[in-house]
Amino acid sequence: MKISELFYSIQGEGKRTGYPSFFIRTNLCNLRCKFKSGNLCDTPYTSWDFENPSNLGDLSIFEIIKEYKKHYPADIVITGGEPTIQGKELISLCHEIKQLDKNIFITLETNGTFFDEYALNVDIASISPKLKTSVPFKTEFEKGHEKNRINYKSLKSYQELHEIGNLDIQWKFVVTGRDDMEEIQNLQKQIGFDNEDVFLMPEGISENNLSEKRLMVVELCKEYHYNYTDRLHITLWGNKRGV
Ligand code: SF4
């Protein structure tokens, strides 16, 4: 698999915040987020700059699991980049992890643009659909991002798997301001997810960015009856890799 980094830390976002976790950060993404604050994606070395030499490169599933075993039985968080664009390898990775111990808790973090049978072998899908404010500038490349950022069929498939009881789910939205709420609510109507599974998260890649938006997002959560999630790893360590 094309891997950016492997590291052991705590989960900083969503329902499993605070759980000791081994992060498998895959390289490559099908989108290119750039927020209206001017911030790029929080992991640009997997998307905008995926050829960055600091990325680990091709690793076998055996090598990944060997590294994880040093931290067993921690949670595993498969994140990116966008892990699902390496769908075939992802199916094998999830399968091998569950062969090691079916109780290892796997979180799949995804932008939700693809769905395949790997979803059957993870415990929670943490889906972060990218809103209009993830692409405020209109170069030719960014128009490609705009066209592909939401795949309703794929998002519905995750929700259906959740509804039949085979998958926990959380819908995690990066919020830049009140303007995002209409789009979130429209998406909720179309996909049919519950408020209790929605987490709003302030957009930002530094503690300063987060502290400017935190209270605004908390107030939106209270008003719309959604959950709030912070980005604990940024508060603890700043915008560093491997944490
Ligand atoms: S979808 Fe995620 S990894 Fe891809 S560009 Fe956007 S924020 Fe970065």
Strand % is 15-25%
CATH architecture verdict = Alpha-Beta Barrel
Q: Low-confidence segments, ≥5 residues, pLDDT <50?
A: none
Side-by-side strand order of the widest sheet = 3-1-2-4-5-6-7-8-9
- The beta-strand count equals 9
* Overall pLDDT: 94
Helix content: 25-40%
N-to-C SSE string, H for helix and E for strand = EEEHEHEEHHEHEHEH
Describe it for me?
With 243 residues, this protein is α/β, with parallel strands linked by helices. The protein has one domain (2-237): Aldolase class I (TIM Barrel). Helices cover 33% and strands 19% of the residues. It has seven helices and nine strands. The protein has helices at residues 61-69, 87-100, 140-148, 152-163, 180-191, 207-224, 232-237; strands at 2-10, 20-26, 57-58, 75-79, 106-110, 124-127, 168-175, 198-202, 227-228. The protein has a nine-stranded mixed β-sheet. α2 (87-100) links the parallel β4 and β5. The longest helix has 18 residues, at 207-224. The relative contact order is 0.15. The mean pLDDT is 94. Residues 29, 31-33, 41, 43, 46-47, 80-82, 111, 130 line the site of iron/sulfur cluster.
